[in-house]
Every structure is written in C-alpha cells, then in structure tokens.
Description:
single chain; 849 residues; alpha/beta; 30 helices; 15 strands
Amino acid sequence: MEVPTETDMAEQRSQQDWLLLVGLFCFFFSGAAGLLYQVVWTRMLTQIFGNTTYAIATVLSAFMAGLAIGSYLFGKIADRGKNDFLLYGILEAGVGVYGFAVPWLFTLAQKVYGPIFGLNESHPFLFNLVLFALSFILLVFPTLLMGATLPVLSRFFVRSFAQFGRRVGDLYATNTLGAVIGCAAAGFVFIPVLGMRATVYVAAVTNIVIALLILLIDRLRDKDPQHLATQAAVGEAAAPAAEASSSSLRWIVLLSFAFSGFASLVYENAWTRALTLVIGSSIYSFTTMLVTFLIGLALGGFIYARFMGEREARLSTFGLIELWVGLAALETIPLFERLPLIFVRLLHGFGDTFTVFLYLQVFLSALVMFVPTVLLGMTFPLVARLFTQSLYRVGSGVGSSYSANTVGAVVGAFAGGFILIPNLGVQNTIIFAVVVNLAVGCWLVLSDTRLAALPRYALGAAVLVLAVAVPFRMPRWDRHILTSGVTIYNDRYESLPSDSLRIEEMKRDEVLFYKEGLTTTVSVHRITGSEYIYFKSNGKIDGSYGDALSQLMTSYIPMMLHPKAEQALTIGLGSGMSAKALATFQSLKGIEVIEIEPAMIEASKFFDRAWVSMEKLPANVSFPADSSKSRIWYDSGEKRLYYKGVMEEQERSRLMKLSEDKDYRGNLDKLFRNARHSRHSSVLEDPRVRVIPTDGRNYILATPKYYDVITAEPSNPWIAGIANLYTREFYRVINSKIKDDGIFAQWFHNYSMSPDDFRMVFRTFSEAFPHVSLWGMKESDFLLIGSKRPQVFNYAAVKAIYDNNPMLRSDLDYLGLSDVYAVQGFYRMGREAMLEFSKGADINTDDGA
Length: 849
C-alpha cells in the first residue's frame, strides 16, 4: 500500500475541513427542518386524533420511535463505508419528498380514524395501540430517515479516535441548534404567518436544497479513501486493548444512557407543567420552554466538543455528569416558589409589553432548565465515544447510543405524563427523576474499575444517602403561590411594594382542592370570609359563582330556542352549571359532557355543596358522615355541616324543626343562604348524563351520533389546544353533526383579545352557519348561536316549561330574571349585522390555529 506524503495528508485535511463546514451548515438547517416537521405534524395529527394527553404522547412516541429505529439501522449501514456523504444527501431528499406528500397522507388518516374510534369506549387500550400503529405508519418513513442522519455523518467525518468527541459533539450541537431555530420559527413566525401546510413545504424545500447541495459537492470532491484507511489502521491497532478492558461495560453504558433519556423527558414533562403555572399555557409559552430546553442541549454539545472532545472518555466522567444533572435538577425545586415573585418584579421593572413578556418567559425557563440541559447535552458525544470501540463501527456506535437514549426518552415521556405526574404530583416527579440520575451516576462511578476502590465506594455511599434523604427532606411547594396566576393577574401584584405583601395577597384565599391532572393543574378556591368559590386551570380562573350568568345561559338560551330537544352534548364540564342547565329540561333523553381533564370532574363537585363551620350537632340531631346517603351531612373531622345542591324553603323548614338549639338554627339559616349558589345540582348523578373524558372536537368528528343541541364553553382561544375550537373546519364538523333543526351555542369573550382576532372569530362563525345570532350575557361575555334553520323564540312553549319547572324558575330568579321573556334581552344582533361588523377580517382555519 502506498504511504501518503505530508503534502497529501495536508490536502486531505484541508478537504476534510471544507467538507466538515459544508456538513455542519447542512446539518444545521436539517435540524431546523426536523423541528418544523415535529411541531407541525404533531399539531396536524392531534387535530385528527384529538388533543388529549394520550393522543399527543402517542404521536410524539411514534415520532421518536422512528428516530430510534433509523439511527440504529442506518448506523450499521453507514459502517459499510461505501459513500456516507452521498447517503446523507439521499436521506435528506427522502425526508423532503415525504414532506410534500404529508397533507394528502394525513387526509387519508382522518378517513381511517373514524371507523376505529368506536374502540375508544369499549377497548381503550386496544384503541391507543391502534392509534400508535397508525401514527407510526404515517411517521416511520421520514423519522427513520431523520434518525439516520447523525450516525451517517458521524461515520463519514470521524477519522480518528482523537477527533471523535469533537466531531460528534459538533454535529450533535449544530443539529440541535438548528432545531432551536426551527422550533422558534415554527411557533413565532411560520405557522402564524404562513399556516401549517406552507410551513411543512418550507421544511421540505429545505431538505431538498440540502440534498441537491450534498449531491453536487459529492460529485466535485476527491473520494480518495487512502488517508482514512491509514488512520483507521492506526486506530484499530490501539483499539483492541481498550475493547478488552471495556467490552463488558458497553451494556452498562447503553442502559445508563437509556435511563438518562428517561429522566430527561420526565424533567421536561414536569418542568413544563410547573412553568405553565408561572409563564402561562399559551402556544408561545410552550414554544419558549421547548426552545430553552433545546438551547441547553446544543450548548452542552458544543462545550463537550470544544473542551472535552479530545480527552480520554471515562465511565466515571459520564457518572459525574449524571450526578451533576441530578443535583442541578434538585436545586430547581425550591426555585419554583420564587419564580412568580421574580416574574412580577421583572415585569414591573421592564414594562408590561409582549416583547418583554417573551424575554421573561425565556429567562424564567432558563433559570430552571439551563444548567441541567447543558449537562445533559454533554452526555451524548461522551457516551457515543465510550460505546464505540472501532473506527469502522462509528456509525453503529453513534446510532446505538442515540437509539438507546431515544427509547428511554419515549418511556420517560409516557411515564412522566401518564403515571408520575397524575399520581405523585409535579414536585415528587422531579424528585423521582433526580433519584434516577443519582442512581445512574453512582452506578457508573462504581463501575469504573480504573478508579481506586475507596473513592468509588465512598462516593457511592454518599449518593445513596442523598437519594434516600431527598424525598423526605424537601419542603413542599405552597399551592397558593403556584396557582397565583401571575401571568394573567400581574396587575394585582405589581402595585404591591414588597414580596411579603405579594405573598400575603397570593395566600388570601383558601385552596379547597388541588390536583395535577393529565393535561392541566386544577384548583378550587374560596374567598376567605365568604362562600364565593372559583376554580382555576393552570392558575387562570375559568369558572366561579360570579360566572353563573354566562355558564347557565350558555345552555339555557339554545334550549329555549329548541325546547323539544332530545339529544344534547356540551364541550367542557367546568363548574357543571352549563351541563346542569341542559339537564333542567326533561325533554332531553341523553346528555353527553365532553371533558378532556378528568380532575375537573372532582373539582366541579365543589360547586354542588355549601357548608358552615359547626363544632358539634345538637344532642338530638344526627346526620350521615358523607354525601352518599343524604344531601345534608356532618363531617366531624372537619367540623363542618354540608348541604349538596340548592336548599328549598320546605327543606329548610324541615331541618329547622329538628332542634331548638340557637347555634344550630343560626348555622342552618346560613347554610340555606350559602346553598343558594349551588347551581351544579348534582348533575353528574343524573342518569341521562354521561361524562366522556376525551377531546371534544375529536369526539364530535368521530362519533356517528347527531344532536339537537351542542354547546361549547372552552377556555380562551390563546390557550394551547383551544384555538382549534374556533376554526372554520370545527364549525363545519359541528354543522354536520347537528340535526336539521339543531342549535349550536358557543361562549366567547372580548378580553385579552385584539380587535382583529375578535372580528375574525365573528366572521368565521357567521360564514359557517346559514343562521346566526349573537347574545351578550355580561360586559365581556358573548354567546354565538348557529343553526341550519331560522332561530325562533317560541314564548308560549318556553313559558309552559318555565311554569312547570321549579329548577328553571329557581335559576332565572337567582340571575334576577322574573320571566323567560326577559332572556330575549340578551339578544344583540343577527347574521347580517355580524357579517357587517366583521367585514374584512380573516377566516380562522385549522391551518393557522
């Protein structure tokens, strides 16, 4: 074999440096395109499969499973060493071609989804399994190719073990930095401006341009493999000794990296849920959090490449990084209670503008995520080097490492969202992931036999003590502070001069219920010194006694326009008042309540009970200990007398006669007044009512049923996952599922909305239904009514129902309405006036939601 001269070596190094720059440039934009795909495809598929936690996790798991398979399979293919540079170009071309085909493929998926939806109720596990299979079929081809790119490029550019860490670290970090740009561009620019379909086409064009550039350069470059063969031979000469000493530990490395991936996705889940309580749950908030997470990973990869890439890779180094990840994550736990106060102070100092708000979101997210994610980003190139024992197996080494970490991440995403957070809570979930990192780090340090025994076991014992002590010694978060909703109600706290006064304001109201559910954190509060109750979703008030007018009229008005309705559906349970208003009408034979968050069912029951504090019952009076046997009960532990529902005058008189005790009678009179607010009326116990825990839009799209009345009282459109309940496509689905004489009613508001967005919803709704009317219930609350036929208020028919329906009379009296005729006073305008008001506004579509 001809030995290359110094001149040949220099020329080949120059060509390699030039090709590396081209590769990094292309890989950066490849990462950007990959995140554009992930964001948009997830949104597209959740519009088909539903916006439930299960559906989102299923789509993301299918996406990540494809990445894992691609990295593993193509890592082995790359090691054949044919032309990995050209192979990379072909992979990018394949992703781009698929990107152009996506809109049509997803349309076919929607047609397939309808027939399988029936499994959701009868066999939910089988349904989710089929859903995963369908998602996997749709996404496996492009994600497999995406996952293949890193091991393929690593195999091409790594020419010696000395440069392994730096090259792989540079590639990983550059691709992740591109992902940062892609994520930010998708959330802040492309989707709002271009729409989802055009954003996918931008990503597809990017892939095609990368492929063409790679193919062109591959034709021009010198393909002489002589230098690689020489370096590989040198590397192989040194590799066997290292392999002999570490082959038994390669599975330890992979398993540890899988657990590291598991912990990282558990952190991401938990941090995201906790941060939404501080920076809000808008689409921009979620984009900001993901961008911050990716920035940390990218910077970690660059730090390893620049400062550690040429050093010897050690198991103990990997172990120490894992220990530092756990300790850094542990330090974030007490920080969460301070974040709301930090947010208020910074907003007060820099001004309440949208730009400042975005910067604060990034800053607060970075306070939590930055250090742990930087450390996590350092692990990938290190693990790939530890696992790879031959230059001829760089592809499979990088691919296997990436695959193991991704599989762990898939499991972590599922476990974090479905098991840990709903059962342990967010804080304990973070602690659980901390313990995982500490255990992995300890295991790795103990496994490094090149360290002296005493330091290894001493460190292991210290970590073990720490892992056991952490769950029991960590103070619990204050739920008052976490649910203070500083993003929405910052003006309430800004005016206060000190943090101590702000904390006092946050703790002013009593927390009756707190649950970190599958999709949101639900809490129920009572204003101290009164019986006024309200509930929050992620710190934002979404229902209260003060909203009774809007919540009751959301169902009463459409039912009065269709008093003979037999089948009804309402989207969102909330306080339960809207569902209760439907149930008031005895003509209804079936009422379906679609509620995406199971924790909301328990929260709604607080609007069905009133109570007074009472030390003890009179000697001759006894009540059951819970609500299972009676509407009235006494909890001796809480020392409270409860009543479920609205207490009628006759019931009050009956209970008064039980005792002459003055304290008892006074408390009962107070209980009677408090129970006046209980407009829930135990609606969930009505045999006609069925609560279905799923996504409302998705259910209506897939169900074969047709309805006389459909009502919707979703949260604000700017909340992530809610905007698609205000689109043209959603209204078309509704139009197809209401009967010819059916009515659709949707609550809407004008606060926290730009005039253009407000008019956009009006125009979208007005053009979706042949007959439309607008009703104004409060200063900022409106009800949009759509139907296929003209809307008629039949006073005689409604009055007859009113005269024979005590509950309807009670509710209208509670709202200050003396007769059903007064309901017509809420009418504001018809379709023509609404179209005139919204003239020139945009149409809200799924593509831009």
